[in-house]
């Protein structure tokens, strides 16, 4: 089992729809959770961080964390073609080690 | 504030050679991490340096090494290059729990 697993994708949604990206992790000691967006040929860009159970909203993005279920998700409301990218889930343990999922590629169709 | 700067951006090396990549973190960031990204393996953690000390290490062979200087700038070195070392090498700097990536160095081994 991988330490961080993301839904394999690719994921395709129409413009204006909600895109839902999911991530599970195996280390119960994980404390910090991040979502990165990576456009093709570019480096990952941090878009959301979440540290406690519940929801965290930032504009059209909502991160959700459930530590009991070892699950973190990212919702993108009113999806735009510019949201088309690969989304990486990252999990940090207390020791500071970062582990990334393989990413989910999202395509938003006009 | 300047972002994470990596040099060079692109590099072509021959099997058996060695290579050194450089990274300047965001001003004030003392933690620098290195990652290898390939289409098949995703984003994999190489090592992390904090205040000139290696704090975490991933599962890479000893041919991969790094160091950090007193000004937090970091270098990574790969000796005896193999074809499989062709990848995007990403440097990231951290302050607190959030991590920011540089643009990467695209290494091609021929």
Structure commentary:
The complex is a heterodimer of chains A (110) and B (110). Chain A is mainly beta and 110 residues long. In chain A, 0% of the residues lie in helices and 55% in strands. Chain A has strands spanning 4-6, 11-14, 19-25, 32-38, 45-50, 54-58, 61-66, 71-76, 85-92, 98-100, 104-109. In chain A, strands 2, 4, 5, 9, 10 and 11 form a six-stranded mixed beta sheet that branches. In chain A, strands 1-3-8-7-6 form a five-stranded antiparallel beta sheet, with no helix packed on it. Chain B has 110 residues and is mainly beta. Chain B is built from no helices and eleven strands. The N and C termini of chain B lie far apart (37 Å). The model of chain B has no long low-confidence stretch (mean pLDDT 94). The interface between A and B is medium-sized, with 22 and 20 residues.
Concise description?
The complex is a heterodimer of chains A (110) and B (110). Chain A has 110 residues and is an all-beta fold.
List keywords for this structure.
heterodimer; A: 110 residues; mainly beta; 55% strand; B: 110 residues; 7-stranded mixed sheet; 4-stranded antiparallel sheet; 0% helix; globular
Distance between the termini of chain A: 36 Å
Instruction: Please give the share of residues in helix of chain B.
Output: under 10%
- Structural class based on helices, strands and sheet pairing of chain B: mainly beta
Overall geometry of chain A comes to globular
What best-fitting shape of chain B do the alpha-carbon axes yield?
globular
Q: What's the pLDDT, averaged over the residues of chain A?
A: 93
| Helical content class of chain A | under 10%
Q: Work out the number of β strands of chain A.
A: 11
Give the end-to-end Cα distance of chain B, rounded to a whole number of Å: 37 Å
Mean pLDDT of chain B: 94
If helices are DSSP runs of H or I spanning 4 or more residues, what is the number of helices of chain A? 0
Largest sheet of chain A: 6 strands, mixed
Number of strand elements of chain B? 11
**Low-confidence segments of chain B:** none
């Amino acid at each position: 089992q991988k330490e961080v697993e993301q839904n394999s994708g690719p994921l395709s949604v129409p413009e204006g729809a909600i895109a839902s990206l999911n991530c599970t992790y195996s280390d119960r000691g994980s404390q910090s959770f991040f979502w990165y967006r990576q456009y093709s040929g570019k480096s990952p860009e941090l878009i959301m961080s979440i540290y406690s159970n519940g929801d965290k909203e930032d504009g059209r993005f909502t991160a959700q964390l459930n530590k009991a279920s070892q699950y973190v998700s990212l919702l993108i409301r009113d999806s735009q073609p510019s949201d088309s990218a690969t989304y990486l889930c990252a999990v940090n343990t207390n020791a500071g080690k970062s582990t990334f999922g393989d990413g989910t590629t999202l395509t938003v169709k006009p | 504030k300047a972002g994470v700067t990596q040099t060079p951006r692109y590099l072509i090396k021959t099997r058996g050679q060695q290579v050194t990549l450089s990274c300047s973190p965001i001003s004030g960031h003392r933690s620098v991490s290195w990652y290898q990204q390939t289409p098949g393996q995703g984003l994999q953690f190489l090592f992390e340096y904090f205040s000139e000390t290696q704090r975490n290490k991933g599962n890479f062979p000893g041919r991969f090494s790094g160091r950090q200087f007193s000004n937090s700038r970091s270098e990574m070195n790969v000796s005896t290059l193999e074809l499989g070392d062709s990848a995007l090498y990403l440097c990231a700097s951290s302050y607190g729990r959030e991590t920011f990536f540089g643009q990467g160095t695209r290494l091609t081994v021929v």
